[in-house]
């Protein structure tokens, strides 16, 4: 009896297939014996839906990145990028000497997007363009990003409130509090009400507490935001990230 069991186990071991490797990222998948179906399987491969192309194995993670790169415009639309900015990237941005340091900081941010980034300065200095470029690169790297202007964000939350449902209002607040990467455009253009201050303060507070990076663009400095927002939000922004001043000329009025 024991001899038959030993021989059966030896036969199973001899039939064990070699591990398979993703041809892009190099992750190794080990086979596992399925005693119910009585054959070797690659459970991790089936769980993450890997595909086999001749001798090239591509894992789900790499296949997803390939799909994103082949359909980046569609993904940017899902992220929330307005049609006007869908072509914005680091490659299409032409920095002048006075904001070249801003360009370098934003581009370097992609290598370590673990902190908040506050981009402020006059109209048309390229803040939104570079914020979209950041969203593009994070998306291409497989990160989950949301991009929205602050007036639009408050409109969505207020709409949920006006529908008479606390659940809808909470849904929108949680949506922007919990996403891994949030880019808030035009911070400070919203109407200055106590409800707006409390809502934005809560979102920034929750993201800060859970170490979720936020990129913010604004025409106002932190001192001006302090005066407008009573200091609560600007204090958190000042203490949890990098502040970048865009002091160039209006990018949209340039003719070069």
Features of the shown structure:
alpha/beta; two-stranded antiparallel ribbon; Rossmann fold; 256 residues; five-stranded parallel beta sheet; 2 domains; elongated
Describe the structure.
By secondary structure, the chain is an alpha/beta fold. It has two domains: 2-67, no CATH class; 71-253, 3-Layer(aba) Sandwich (Rossmann fold), CATH 3.40.50. The protein is built from eleven helices and eleven strands. The strands form four sheets. A five-stranded parallel sheet has the order 8-9-10-7-11, sandwiched between helices. Strands 1-2 form a two-stranded antiparallel ribbon. Strand 9, helix 9 (194-209) and strand 10 form a beta-alpha-beta unit. The longest helix is centred in the C-terminal third of the chain and has 16 residues, at 194-209.
The CATH class of the largest domain: Alpha Beta
- Give me the CATH architecture of the largest domain, please: 3-Layer(aba) Sandwich
- The CATH superfamily label of the largest domain reads P-loop containing nucleotide triphosphate hydrolases
Largest sheet: 5 strands, parallel
CATH topology annotation of the largest domain: Rossmann fold
Extended strand count: 11
Radius of gyration: 25 Å
Mean pLDDT, all residues: 86
**Structural class per helix/strand content?**
alpha/beta
pLDDT under 50 segments (min length 5)?
A: 47-55
Distance between the termini: 87 Å
Count of helical segments?
A: 11
Strand order in space, largest sheet = 8-9-10-7-11
